[in-house]
Amino acid sequence: MNRAQKAALGSAGIGLVVLALKFGAYWVTGSLALYSDALESIINVVAAGAAFIALRVASKPADGGHPYGHHKAEYFSAVIEGVMIVLAAILILVKAYDGILAPRALEMPLLGLVVNAVATAINLGWALTLLRWGRAWRSPALAADGRHVMTDVWSSGGVLIGVALVAVTGWLILDPILAAIVAVNILWSGWVMIRDSVSSLMDASAPPEILDQIAKIIATHSEGAQEAHDVRTRQVGSVIFIDFHLVVQGTMSVTESHAICDRIELALRQAIEGARVTIHVEPEEKAKHKGVPVLLAS
Fold first, then answer.
1. How do residues 126-176 score in pLDDT, each as one tens digit?
2. How far apart are CA 125 and CA 117, in angstroms?
3. How many Cα atoms occupy the beta-carbon half-sphere of 36 within 13 Å?
4. Which H or E element spans position 248?
5. Which CATH number fits domain 208-286: 3.30.70.1350, 1.20.190.20, 3.40.50.2000, 2.60.40.10?
6. pLDDT at position 5
7. How far is CA 12 from CA 3, 16, 46, in A?
8. Could you give the CA distance from residue 133 to residue 140 in angstroms, rounded to a whole number?
9. Which regions span the lipid bilayer (predicted)?
10. Average pLDDT over residues 72-79
11. Which of 1, 70, 82, 289 to pair with 188, CA 20 to 30 A apart?
12. C-alpha to C-alpha distance for 265 and 223, rounded to whole angstroms
C-alpha cells in the first residue's frame, strides 16, 4: 500500500469521526443547516472510499491490455465524487424547501455549535494536509478529496455563524435558508470537480510551468541536434507523458543520435517526477524551423 492509498484510508477514518460529530450536532439541535452539513460528511466518507479504490487501481503496473498504465483511474474517482456532491446538494435543497414551508425551533443550539465547531476544526486540518499531499504527489484523487473537505469547512463555517444568528435572533427561517445556501455552494464545488476531471480524462496538457521547464531542459541538453519540434504532453495522475521530434544531421549515426536522446530523457526524468519520454528522431530535411531551439553540434 503506497502513501496515497494510506492517505485515502486516513481520510475515510477521519470522515467517520467528523460524520459522527456533525450528526450529533444535528440530533441535539434539529437544525436543517447542521443537517446539511452532516449530510455532506457522508459524501466525504464514501468519496474517500472511492478514492482509495481508484488509487489501488492506478498503482497497478502497465500490462498487455493497458500498456500506458492505469493512472486515469484517479480521475474516475474524482468524477464520481463530483456527482455524489451534486446529489447531496439536491437532497439538501429538498430538505431546505420543506424547512422554509414549516420552520422549526432549535433545541440546545449552544451544544450543537460546540460539537460542530470541533468537527470543523478537524476537517480544516485534514483538508490542508490532503491539498498539500495532492500537490506534492500529483494525485488527482487526493487533491479532489482535499478540495471537497475544504468546501465542507467553508460550508461549516457559514453554518456555525447562521445557526448562532438563529439562536440569538429567533429568526427560524434563517435555518432552512442557510441550508439552501450551503447546498448551492456544494453544487458549485461538485460541478468544478466534474469539469476538471473530465478535462484530464480528455488528455489535457501539463500545466504551463511544467511546459516551460520541459522546453528549457530540451534546449540545454540537446547539444548535437538541430531542432526539437511538435513537443506534446499529457498529464495522467502523477505521470506526465512527453513526446517530441528531434532533428539531427542526416549523416549522424544511430548510436550518436541515440546518445542525444538518452541525455535528454535522463534530464527530463530527473527534473520531472513521473516523466515518460518518447523521442522521434528525424533527419535535417524534416526540420520545421520552429519549436524548441537547441544547441547545434560543434
1. 999 988 888 887 777 678 778 878 877 877 887 788 788 888 888 888 888
2. 13
3. 41
4. strand 239-248
5. 3.30.70.1350
6. 81
7. 14, 6, 7
8. 10
9. 7-28, 34-55, 75-97, 109-131, 152-171, 177-194
10. 72
11. 70
12. 13
